[in-house]
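Aim 2 progress. For 3-phytase, the working sequence is reproduced below.
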Amino acid sequence: MTHRYLADLARRTSIVSDMGLLIQVETALPLLDIYKRWPDELGGRQWWKFQQHTGARDEPQDPRGIESDHPHRDVRQAHDFGQMKQLVYGLTDRGPNADGPGKNEKLTPTPDFVPKIGRFRLTGSRAVLESVVELKNPAGVRFNGLVDSSASTGETMRNLNGTALAPTDYGLDSEGLIALPDGSFWVSDEYGPFLVHFDASGTEVERLAPGNGLPEELSLRTPNQGMEGLTVTPDGRTLVGVMQSGLRTPGLTSAREVPMTRIVTVDISTRAVHEYVYPLEDPKSKLGVSEITATGGTTFVVDERDGKLAPKANKKLWAIDLTGATDIGPQANVPGAHYDPRLGLLIDGKPLETYIGTVLTADGITALRKAGVNPVAKQSNLDLAGLVDGLDPSGKFFGHDKIEGVATRDGGKTLYIANDSDFGLDGSTGDNPPFGLKPKTLPNGLQDTGEILMVDTTRLPARTKTTTVTITVR
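Predicted C-alpha cells for this construct:
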C-alpha cells in the first residue's frame, strides 16, 4: 500500500507542481502498519487480479505452464500450510465475458480462453508472476470457459461477431482454489457445481459432482451462482465449499431472495459429506456469498457482498461456526423430515428453499428451528464497506464492486482481501453485431483491476492521519 499510495500522490502533485508553485498537499492515509495493498503485476502489461496465499511448509515445485498474454484474471483463494512465504496462487474463472443484448446471453471476446492457475510472489508492492498452470482434463485436453454440456446454465454464449458458441464437454467455470502441500490443487466450479482435483501439472485426477460425491440437490443451483467459495480446514482433512445463493427448488419463485444458502463439507480421505444451512444477511438486497476461508476446524470467515461500487456498497465478513448446526445432507437425521436424493432434505414434503420461501432472514431461521434444523451460527467479523468508506468517503480507496477473495494465515487476525475485476469489463455496446465491450470504471476513474488489501483486525477501528508534503518546483 505504501508504494501504491505514494505513486498516486506523485501523480496528483505532478500536475499541480507543473505550475511552478510551492505547494502543500494534504492527504488522508490509513496507518501504514495496519494496511498494505498490492496491485498484481504481469510483466510490463496490464494487471492480474489475485489473492494472498498462505505459503507452504516446503514450497512445491514450479508447476509447468505457459505465461499468459491475457491482461486480466479472476482469482480466488488458495490455502497451504506452514510458514508464511508471501506465496500467492491465483485462479482465473471462465474468462472475459459480458452480458449481451438478448435474454441469458453472454458475449466473450476469447472463446478459446483456458482457465489457469498462476503462482505469484509478493515482492515489495507487486505480485510477481512466477509460473502458470493450464487446466486440462484427464486426457490432457485443455478446458475452456464455454457452457459445459453436462451442466447447462441456460445461457447462450456468443463471440463478438454474434456467432453462437455451442456447449462443450470441456467447460469449466472455476471459482474457488485450494493449493495442497503435495503440489496438487482442488478447484470449485459454478457449472456443475463440481469439485475438481488437479495434479501439479494442471491435469484432472478426480472430480466430485452432484450425485457423485456431492449432494445431488446442488445441481439445482441458480445459473452463475454455484460453488463460489472453497477452503480447507487447517488440518488439511476437510474441503469446505459454499454456494453463492439458494437453490432453485421446485415451487420457488425467486431463489435469489431466499434467506439461506448451503455449506458443504467433504472429508478428503473418507469422502463423507455433510451439508448445512447458512443464513444470508439480507436476501432482498441480492446479497450473495463469494468466499469462505477456514480459521479453525469448525470456524470460518464468510464473505457476503452486493455488486455495487463504493461508496454505496454492502460488503461484510462474518465469523461462523458449524458446531451445533444441523446436518441437512445425505446423512441428515431430522425428526419428521425426509432426505430425498434429488431434492435434498424435505420438510412437509418441500425442499428447504421452497419451505422457507422469500421471507426475512429472522423469519426463515425461526421456521427452520421449529422444524428441527439449526442453521450455522454467525456473527459480524468485519464491515469491509464501512471500513473503506471511512478511509475515503469518495470510494476511491479499494472501491471495487466484487470482493471475492479472503485468506488468512493466523486464524483470522490478519485478513488478505481481493476483488474480482471481471477482467475490467462492464457490459457490451450495441444491440447488433459486431459487438463492443465497455470498461468497468472504478470511482477513482480507472479501469478495474485486481488488488489485495491486507487488514490487521487487531488494530481496528481504523484511524487516519494527515500528512503534509511540501514540494518546491524550480
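The first helix runs from residue 2 to 17. This observation will guide construct design in the next reporting period.
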